[in-house]
Design a protein that fits this description.
Blueprint (H helix, E strand, L loop, with lengths): L1 E11 L2 H11 L3 E5 L3 E6 L2 E7 L13 E6 L3 H10 L9 E3 L2 E7 L5 E6 L3
Parallel strand pairs: 1-4, 5-8
Antiparallel strand pairs: 1-5, 2-3, 3-4, 6-7, 7-8
């Protein structure tokens, strides 16, 4: 199934404050930063800071989105997981930064299969 963790995404309300914390307090290297998305290197693990959409409040439920790198194609992994009863939030979505298939674990934690752009 999964061959490893591709990245961990953390929702944030204030990108500048979050980047400063991870860079200045935790000492992580900032690879890129934008208003809606920033990437940090955590000893080879990419941590993505993703701007929270429309909440405006750090008190809202947050948490990491664990992004799994499939062993094979994302399509074959989705098919295999669906065969095991996994419910996906929709079809594989296409983005300039890659393709994702979102689902949850048995506890409601957000997971995604991720394929980088070709």
């Amino acid at each position: 199934m999964a061959s490893g963790v591709a990245s961990v995404w953390l929702p944030v309300d204030d990108m500048d404050r979050a980047v400063a914390f991870y860079r200045d307090v935790l000492g992580l290297e900032v690879k890129q930063t934008r208003a809606q998305w920033s990437e940090l290197d955590a000893n080879g693990l990419m941590i993505g800071l993703n701007a929270r959409e429309g909440t405006g409040s750090a008190s809202s439920n947050g948490g990491a989105v664990v992004t799994l790198q499939p062993d094979g194609s994302i399509e074959s992994e989705v098919e295999e997981l669906r065969g095991k009863g996994v419910q996906f939030a929709g079809d594989i979505s296409e983005h300039p930064w890659g393709r994702i298939a979102a689902f949850t674990d048995t506890e409601g934690n957000a997971l995604q299969l991720y394929a980088p752009p070709a």
